[in-house]
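Worked problem 6 (solution included).
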Amino acid sequence: MNVAIIGSGNVGRALAGALRRAGHQVSFGVKSPDPGQPDQASVPDAVGRAQATILAVPFAAVGDVVTAAGGFAGKILIDATNPLGMVEGGLGLTMGFTTSGAEQVAALAPQARVFKAFNQTGFENMADTRPYAQRPVMFVAGDDADGKRTVLALVADAGFEPIDAGGLRAARLLEPFAMLWIELARKRGLGSDFVFSVQRKG
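Solution. The predicted structure is:
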């Protein structure tokens, strides 16, 4: 599958590596492509060629990206962002429970097929899940049934156990879930080399 990733930071590059290992063609959509980097393209060009696009930019940049991409009309758009900011003296979510960052993305891009995924663990784990004995879980939220099958398959190809969390409204739960990982990893000394997984009775 041809996948565009908007954002070439830690998360974008980690996901690119994982998806390339699974055989997907990945290009980065950036504001000013470097001619010396063949995997870079302008945002409109990268999105236009892609069957799915992953949004991996700081949440504050989402509006500009949506504009540059022409609203992602008709496209599968996977929101890997979390609406983070400084709250109560530390890093935290700037919204939640009555709305979500993903729903804000959908409002900015009403013609896109928006999903929430790839936001629930650190980039270190997105880069390679193979060291874990059991696949880490990655929940997927979104309203488009056909598009969700594609997103669940990409999540599996990236090394996660994909679980359908329901409609996009469920992002109100998945973003705080991501904040729990961030809290434990970055503030409580657990470090980045842990994941959440789902276990079933044998």
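Discussion: The two ends are 35 Å apart (CA to CA).
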